[in-house]
Amino acid sequence: MNRAVFLDRDGVINECALPHQYVTTVEQFRFLPGVLDALAFLAGNYTGQVVIVSNQAFIGKGLMSTSDNSPNGIVFDWMVGRIVEAGGRVDGVYVCPHTPEDKCWCRKPQPGMLVQASRDLNIDLPRSTMIGDMLTDMQAAWRAGIGKCYWVMSEYHPLPDSWHGRRYRVVESLAQAVHLIVEAERESLRGSGYRLGGIRGVNHRGRAASTASCPQRRL
Ligand SMILES: [Mg+2]
Ligand SMILES: [Zn+2]
Question: Which bound ligand lies closest to the C-alpha atom of 130?
Answer without folding.
Answer: 1
